[in-house]
DNA sequence: GCTACAGTACTCGGATAGATCATGTCCGAGTGGCCAAGG
DNA sequence: CCTTGGCCACTCGGACATGATCTATCCGAGTACTGTAGC
């Protein structure tokens, strides 16, 4: 069970976008350069975020990606779900159905106690992620490094490097 | 992020093993037949459980697998870790290290707030899994289906089917 | 000087290869049981 | 009848194919800017 590398990139990139002027768009290539990431592949992840309604994209010169809604309304769960997909990590394949006994019309995804336990654990994980917003994360970073917003904004404003 | 199919098989198989006579071993093929699973592949998963010290294995006739310790001392976390490996789902690759700024001797796996948030969520998941023992699960099943232990034991005792 | 227009550079978006891991299968090493032969 | 030795069947364990998914890359469609020509 390995989470995609793109999740880390996506969260950090979204965080950087929170520090830009409202309405300002940044090309994927520039976001990638910030962390020296492969541009085309990061672009792919950003597309997924755009499809999920987290980012908004504009093509052409002066185009790029920007947050589609307020950082207060974007949770880590949203970002993870956009990259990894909405399905759960533990997939109950209902092995009980193939075991001995009667199985007519029984939904083992709900009835099976093993499935319930696994689901409960995963729910705790999701709840924790859903409790963290991009705004909260941004504020925490700013408390630790008050210069981060200005520095990041300056870096993206600069033409090179 | 998809969990291995083997996790579901492993938990159900361990559960079945809790209902056997103490010290009685069951071949992988027989455990697989219970849920109509591919025997050789289930065998592979059971080997992982044996390496993790959850099951004990004996080769030769009358051999097979049995629980290596009491069901009270086996958690779902143990089983999942045995199959999926001990590493975390979210791997912090420390992208911050490649970003602008100073990075000498900084452990971003601990310092990065993104990494911390993801880690906290995953910890909630692990804690939930670690709170569920095989014994607890077994008792829940027995409360719902009091005949389960006897039926399961009888099925494994029967020579065919 | 102002406007219209064509060319150009830039960006996303999806389609296309390669690498890595999960899935599934197979055969060999070792062990215990069984059977027969001998005492 | 009891013991002993060899044979055989059974089981795990790891090595070997196969397929799906993650990773990485490339090129085309569309857009906004820019520079120029005409009025």
Description:
The structure is a homodimer of 161-residue chains. The first copy, chain A, has 161 residues and is mainly alpha-helical. Chain A has a domain at 5-85 and 134-157: Arc Repressor Mutant, subunit A, CATH 1.10.10. In chain A, 53% of the residues lie in helices and 5% in strands. Chain A has helices spanning 5-18, 28-34, 39-51, 76-84, 108-111, 113-130, 134-144, 148-157; strands at 55-58, 64-67. Chain A has a two-stranded antiparallel sheet. Chain A is elongated. Chain A starts with a helix and ends with a helix. Chains A and B meet through helix 1, helix 6 and helix 7 of A and helix 1, helix 6 and helix 7 of B. Chain A binds a DNA duplex (39 and 39 nucleotides) through helix 3.
CATH names the topology of the domain at 5-85 and 134-157 in chain A as: Arc Repressor Mutant, subunit A
Order of helices and strands of chain A: HHHEEHHHHH
Task: Give the CATH superfamily of the domain at 5-85 and 134-157 in chain A.
Answer: Winged helix-like DNA-binding domain superfamily/Winged helix DNA-binding domain
Strand order of the largest sheet of chain A: 1-2
β-strand percent of chain A reads under 5%
Q: Which secondary-structure class do the elements of chain A indicate?
A: mainly alpha
- The first-level CATH class name of the domain at 5-85 and 134-157 in chain A: Mainly Alpha
- Tell me the helix content of chain A: 40-55%
Inertia-based shape of chain A: elongated
Number of strands of chain A: 2
What are the segments of chain A in which pLDDT stays under 50 over at least 5 consecutive residues?
none
Radius of gyration of chain A, CA atoms, in whole angstroms: 20 Å
CATH architecture of the domain at 5-85 and 134-157 in chain A: Orthogonal Bundle
Assembly state here? homodimer
Biggest chain contact: A-B, 49 and 49 residues
C-alpha end-to-end distance of chain A: 36 Å
Could you report the average pLDDT of chain A, rounded to the nearest whole number? 94
Number of helices of chain A: 8
* Major sheet summary line of chain A: 2 strands, antiparallel
């Amino acid at each position: 069970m390995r989470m995609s590398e793109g999740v880390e990139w996506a969260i950090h990139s979204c965080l950087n976008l929170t520090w830009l002027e409202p309405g300002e768009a940044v090309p994927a290539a520039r976001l990638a350069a910030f962390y020296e990431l492969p541009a085309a592949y990061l672009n792919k992840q950003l597309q997924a975020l755009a499809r999920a309604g987290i980012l908004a994209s504009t093509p052409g010169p002066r185009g790029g990606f920007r947050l589609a809604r307020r950082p207060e309304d974007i949770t880590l769960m949203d970002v993870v779900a956009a990259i990894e997909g909405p399905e759960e990590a533990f997939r109950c394949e209902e092995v009980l159905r193939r075991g001995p006994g009667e199985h007519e019309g029984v939904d083992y995804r709900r009835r099976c106690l093993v499935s319930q336990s696994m689901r409960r654990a995963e729910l705790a994980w999701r709840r924790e992620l859903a409790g963290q917003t991009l705004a909260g994360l941004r504020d925490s970073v700013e408390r630790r490094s008050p210069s981060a917003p200005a520095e990041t904004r300056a870096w993206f404003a600069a033409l090179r490097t």
